[in-house]
């Protein structure tokens, strides 16, 4: 009896506990299969030994039957004289006995051969049924052989037959034990088959779940690749933005520097403007002072002009008096010295006689003296 075992390879990536469990069950099944094959070999050897024992028993029975027939024929048939001697006559009986022995031998050997043939096809068939059928056939054959021996002998045979019968019974018992063990092993093999089938179903479920997980992993991998591409794009944008930010910061620093320079320039301009404003105010003050001075100068010039006109008028009058006095001096001679004093006195008196003219002349002289003093101070 062979065990049809189809090993299902555990798929890569299946559950961590299912793979070792299935491998363990397969190892147990292989071990049970080896034990079963060993038991079958032992059973075949026992069957062969039993067949040999049955053949030996048949031979012994034939010998006993032939001997018995020969004895019976020798006792029952009278001696026949032939060529001056006595020869036993029952040749037909001996031949019949031989034929009967051969027939019995064929009858005895054919069930054992049938039983042995029933064992051999059972090894290539299914695991169930042939063992029971084989046991039934063997039991029937043993009963037939025992009945035949009992019928032929009618009583216990010779010690050789009893020994062969004892050996046959021992072989039968050994065969019974081997068949019982074989049935137990068949039961274990069936249990292991059921367990392997259950584990195979569980393995298929795990494979289906693994396929679903693989699909999910593939989907997540695709999503991860998309996210990686997005991250790469964002990193590129970030690099561009960082570069732009650096450029903007550089521009801001340059702008700040220019702003500081402009502020400094503005401060300097404000300072220059303040200085210019101060100078402008000073120049305004100076201009106002110059305008006031010019106004005073115009007033003074006007006063000088009037004073000059008055002085010219006064000097013109003096010149006329001087010319008349010179004519008098030339006319009077040495009296001119005393006359000069008197003239000077007269002129002084004449000047004193005109009080308004004296005041004007004095004012003009004072104005001229003040003007000369201011020019000298400047």
UniProtKB/TrEMBL annotation:
Residues 62-72 have a biased composition (Basic and acidic residues). It comes from Panicum miliaceum. Residues 1-20, 62-157, 315-378 are annotated as: Disordered. Residues 315-326 have a biased composition (Low complexity). This is Interactor of constitutive active ROPs 1-like. Residues 189-307 form a coiled coil. Belongs to the ICR family. The keyword Coiled coil applies. Keywords: Coiled coil.
